[in-house]
């Protein structure tokens, strides 16, 4: 049997040498790494070994023998345990440096571009209470409906009412909705047996408009007294302009199902970004930190340095937020997006803002781009804003075939972004500016905007 330098349940004293990209402290015993929650670089800690794996182990802090000067007090340790705010024990200034360093690391190691300097992360003045959306599981605990968040790497619900990083009006609304459901004797979902009824409460609240949408995710379509409940939710929470039932019958981690029914109100909320109005429906993607999204878009727009004659592509467009923010500065905007509800929103949003030079299409970016290339659409600037898995090679090839002067890449995953930047480089696009923006304070998530430009050959 292979020998490891530590054994399960053993307690050791260790010095933390690094912070993983998931925010875990790393200590090494004879070269064997141990990942430890709630431990920061340079700290000396007494650790109990929880798990010994083939290449690395996990440990739990029993005592902090020497705290880091960068440590700050966490009011409620459930915020660390659940992964709601896994970096909240680190001073905010250092969180911003940590994110800049994450991006620098992948540019050096993955993209092999050590010569590029990543700019300091643009952070928030008040880095909490920012989330405009909550997706909260509903379970039964001690015979009552409970709301909270899962313990990390598990589906065990930890009851929480103050989520710290969420809009406090959303925190309050979750409790109100939960109590209404309790009064109506609604059954909580049981994940183990795929039984019961109420799976999740999803709430969105417009940062500027304060309009609220409540989505009740249920296991079955039949919702006894659903409309009555929706009306009571509106009566007790007058900001609620829409209550939607979403049906998800599957045994799955995916929160929303396909089928939807409006139980009360208009079926969407309206909010603003950079002075433009946006309809947002339940299934559409919308950035969760409105203020920092404005900082992000402003930076992206500044880097793009648009001209009135420019044709622009807004790829992975969502509800059209990026394209419609710039449409009045350019000649035409083309956008594509896979979720048809989001494309409906994007088209509505164009009308809502009296924009008639934007065309939005339902389709997969990697299919639509080569098609547009064939149709001789010749963009001067392409914005891309893909999900975590990044871009497809077909997409990158088609984008470069169109020979835009600039490509602005907005990324929520530095690792796939770094991979993609090398592919763009092979096709003649250099990385000029790399700017992280903190959209997710107190968490380890990193958002980055990158400007690439074409080298004339
Ligand atoms: N630019 C928007 C949305 C960004 S999120 C904003 O800032 O709000 C990424 C979006 O890409 C999501 O709306 C998702 O539905 C969409 N998407 C995911 N895979 C896609 C694909 N293969 N092609 C096109 N869009 C896709």
From TrEMBL:
PROSITE patterns: SAM_MT_RNA_M5U (PS51687), TRAM (PS50926), TRMA_1 (PS01230), TRMA_2 (PS01231)
GO MF annotations, alphabetized: rRNA (uridine-C5-)-methyltransferase activity
Residue sites binding S-adenosyl-L-methionine per the record: 287, 316, 337, 385
Identification of the protein by name: 23S rRNA (Uracil-5-)-methyltransferase RumA
Keyword Lipid biosynthesis on entry: no
Keyword Lipid metabolism: no
Family of the protein in this entry: Belongs to the class I-like SAM-binding methyltransferase superfamily. RNA M5U methyltransferase family.
Domain of life: Bacteria
Gene3D superfamilies: 2.40.50.1070, Nucleic acid-binding proteins, Vaccinia Virus protein VP39
Keyword annotations from UniProtKB, A to Z: Methyltransferase, S-adenosyl-L-methionine, Transferase
Native species: Enterococcus saccharolyticus subsp. saccharolyticus ATCC 43076
